[in-house]
Write a structure and sequence with these properties.
The chain is of the alpha+beta class and 101 residues long. It is 37% helix and 32% strand. The protein contains four helices and four strands, in the order βααββαβα. The termini are close together.
Length: 101
């Protein structure tokens, strides 16, 4: 069963193309994390928030990544991280075209 990790936090930018340029190496490194399947990057310049929706193979790998990521964000001065982990209902997700097999 796959798991969703939902993360968001306050961030004063960069956003858009500048964010993509600034975090390309980070994005590539996330691909190497244990159990990682995919991520959707989220941003809201209007509310100075950023984050992502991640899919991991197991709850344990999602928790492990969240622990590491929270520490990394703290190193950037981000200490108020909102995060939740959810199990994915594969049968219903498949009906609604979610990319989970």
């Amino acid at each position: 069963m796959a798991y969703v990790l939902q993360v968001d936090f306050k961030m004063n930018g960069p956003f858009g193309d500048e964010m993509a340029e600034a975090f390309t190496d980070l994005a590539k490194s996330i691909n190497e994390e244990e159990g990682f399947m995919w991520k959707i990057w989220t941003e809201s310049p209007e509310t100075n928030e950023a984050g992502g929706i991640y899919i991991f193979e197991t709850k344990e790998t999602a928790e492990k990544y969240l622990d590491m990521h929270t520490k990394r964000l703290a190193g950037f001065g981000v200490t108020d991280v909102n995060a939740k982990i959810f199990a994915i209902n594969s049968k219903l997700t498949e009906i609604t075209k979610g990319p989970i097999k």
